[in-house]
Amino acid sequence: MFSPLIVLFLILGALAVGALVVVAGIVFFLAKVKSKRGGGAPGGHVAQVQPPAIFISRQFFSRAEAPFFRLLGNTLKDRYVIMAKVRLSDVIDVRATGATWAKARNKIQSKHVDFVLLDPADLTLRLIIELDDRSHEREDRQKRDAFVDQALAQAGIPILHVAAAYTYDPQELLRQINAACGGTGIGCGR
């Protein structure tokens, strides 16, 4: 019916059309990806990729934390370097491997502590202070606090929980800080 030469040309023609369709699809796909990444698009137009709606969600310190931070600064003066809202994973780490490490690391990674006191001479950690406001009365928060307390105790890091209040006695706060540091593995040393 058809000569073998005609059949060969038909097959080669079909393969060439198929290859052109595949190449055109790849070029179209790459152009789309490049324009979404902000690269050049056909016609010299540069597509802009907009980030999700990002904004400041609240003040850095809560209403309870801001005056307490000022009080710490005034009371402790040059005794300590005061850090605020420090990630727990910056203070402690996990000794494990594989899935055990990943699971334990995930438990500490998204948590933070309110205040960290460092020795100004060598910047070693001396004490962690948690300011306990009304949110610490919730069951989920109590579980979180128990986990953090246990993890810090295991690492030998002293922690002081201070109940949030309208006013504080600076001398009483200093007494509590000194008491929290005494008899621990790290100690405040001042």
Explain what the structure shows.
- The N and C termini lie far apart (103 Å).
- About 3% of the residues have low confidence.
- It contains six helices and four strands.
- A four-stranded mixed β-sheet has the order 1-2-3-4, sandwiched between helices.
- The protein is α+β, with helices and mostly antiparallel strands and 190 residues long.
- A hairpin with a 6-residue loop joins β2 and β3.
- The protein has two domains: 41 residues, no CATH class; 117 residues, no CATH class.
- The longest helix is centred in the first third of the chain and has 33 residues.
- It is elongated.
- α2 crosses α6.
Strand content: 5-15%
Order of helices and strands: HHEHHEEHEH
User: Largest beta sheet: what is the strand line-up?
Assistant: 1-2-3-4
What is the CA-atom radius of gyration, in angstroms?
31 Å
Q: Give the helix/strand class.
A: alpha+beta
Helical percentage: 40-55%
Low-confidence stretches: 183-187
Overall pLDDT metric: 79
Number of helices: 6
Q: Overall 3D geometry?
A: elongated
Terminal CA distance reads 103 Å
Count of separate structural domains: 2
How many E-type strands?
A: 4
Largest sheet: 4 strands, mixed
Sequence-ordered SSE layout with sheet pairings:
Layout: H1 4-36, H2 65-76, E1 81-87, H3 88-91, H4 98-109, E2 112-118, E3 125-132, H5 139-155, E4 159-163, H6 170-181
Parallel strand pairs: 3-4
Antiparallel strand pairs: 1-2, 2-3
Helix pairs in contact: 2-6
